[in-house]
């Protein structure tokens, strides 16, 4: 086990990592910008190193300064927290090159899951449900109708370069698909100078439900059930709860197993989250994978009794998960 770790973050998450490290008897190093000199995480850590001026691009995002702080203090590993460099493939690779352990997934797992198109291809290869769609060039409205029939109504017609709700139509039948395609192409050309349009299944009454996974370096991966985060504002999660009031045991198990299959496909070693969109009929489709600890991780800790930060550290130190899927408990409810 590590004797000393550095936390490449600040605020609540840095305090959270220090709490688990202290419980495990591991010394901690905080880093701070000049503006955060009197922050709580600096007080809580055993040592602290100033890494530059207030702007994060001159301090918390500068890899060289974090690596230098590790060498200066003798920290053997780095926990990135969330945000900042937590999902930066280059950062984890550079730490590895310097002989410092990154407390998180391997750089190749981060790279594969960070690319939206690549991750969707990998998901399909791993047998994970992805939103049915057609991403190639569509010749005209008649072909759009054929594709929509193949996918199954309702469908969403979207401009490739779209945004802000422009170049987006939902079609429930052939007539709407024909007209929607034509108007989408025109709107896309006028708004974005790019008339490429694609079609995908429209998920009715969608819910946003994510599965927490945990994998070690010995090929063991388990899912720690779900968190529902459908209540959002401007696509930002407002409320997270576990378990989801919507899922039944069969859907929960199927989603968990697909999340594990995806994690195994990229040799995932750490805590991670696989996000799904779930329809009113309980059909579910892969959205993306977050290759880090999430802000809302305590919701899962409350119902499973597992300390996710502790397990990230143990896995990074090469320990094997001592429990299988059957031993993962789900007690009570957390919000």
TrEMBL record:
Gene3D superfamilies in the cross-refs: ATP-grasp fold, B domain
SUPFAM superfamilies listed in its UniProt record: Glutathione synthetase ATP-binding domain-like, PreATP-grasp domain
Annotated ranges, domain Biotin carboxylation: 1-335
Chain segments annotated as coiled-coil in the UniProt record: none
ATP-grasp domain segment(s): 120-317
PROSITE patterns membership: ATP_GRASP, BC, CPSASE_1, CPSASE_2
Membrane-spanning ranges: none
InterPro entries listed in its UniProt record: ATP-grasp, BC-like_N, Biotin_carboxylase_complex, Biotin_carboxylation_dom, CPAse_ATP-bd, PreATP-grasp_dom_sf
Keywords: ATP-binding, Biotin, Ligase, Nucleotide-binding
Source superkingdom: Bacteria
Molecular function via GO: ATP binding; ligase activity; metal ion binding
Alphabetized PANTHER family for the sequence: CARBOXYLASE:PYRUVATE/ACETYL-COA/PROPIONYL-COA CARBOXYLASE (PTHR18866), METHYLCROTONOYL-COA CARBOXYLASE SUBUNIT ALPHA, MITOCHONDRIAL-RELATED (PTHR18866:SF33)
UniProt name for this protein: ATP-grasp domain-containing protein
Native species: Thauera phenolivorans
């Amino acid at each position: 086990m590590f004797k000393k770790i550095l936390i490449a973050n600040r605020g609540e998450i840095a305090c959270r990592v220090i709490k688990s490290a202290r419980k495990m008897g591991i010394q901690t190093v905080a880093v701070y910008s000049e503006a955060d000199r009197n922050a709580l995480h600096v007080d809580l850590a055993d040592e602290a190193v100033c890494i530059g001026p207030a702007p994060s691009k001159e301090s918390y995002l500068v890899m060289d300064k974090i690596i230098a702080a590790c060498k200066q203090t003798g920290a053997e590993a780095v926990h990135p927290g969330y945000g900042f460099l937590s999902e930066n493939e280059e950062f984890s690779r550079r730490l590895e090159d310097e002989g410092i352990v990154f407390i998180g997934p391997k750089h190749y797992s981060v790279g594969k899951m960070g690319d939206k198109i690549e991750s969707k291809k990998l998901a399909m290869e791993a047998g994970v449900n992805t939103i049915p769609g057609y991403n190639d060039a569509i010749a005209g409205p008649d072909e759009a109708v054929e594709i929509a029939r193949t996918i199954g109504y309702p469908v969403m017609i979207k401009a490739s370069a779209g945004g802000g709700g422009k170049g987006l139509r939902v079609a429930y039948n052939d007539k709407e698909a024909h007209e929607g395609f034509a108007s989408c192409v025109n709107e896309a050309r006028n708004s974005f100078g790019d008339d490429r349009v694609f079609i995908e299944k429209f998920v009715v009454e969608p819910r946003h439900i994510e599965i927490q996974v945990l994998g070690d370096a010995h090929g063991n991966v388990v899912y720690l059930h779900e968190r529902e985060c459908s209540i959002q504002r401007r696509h930002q999660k407002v409320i997270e709860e576990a378990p989801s009031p919507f899922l039944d045991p069969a859907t929960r198990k199927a989603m968990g197993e697909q999340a594990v299959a995806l994690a195994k496909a990229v040799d995932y070693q750490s805590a991670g989250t696989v996000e799904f969109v779930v329809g009113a009929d309980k059909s579910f489709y892969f959205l993306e994978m977050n290759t880090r600890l999430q802000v809302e991780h305590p919701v899962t800790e409350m119902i499973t009794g597992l300390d996710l930060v502790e397990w990230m550290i143990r896995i990074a130190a090469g320990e094997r998960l001592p429990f299988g899927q059957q031993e993962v408990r789900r007690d009570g409810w957390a919000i």
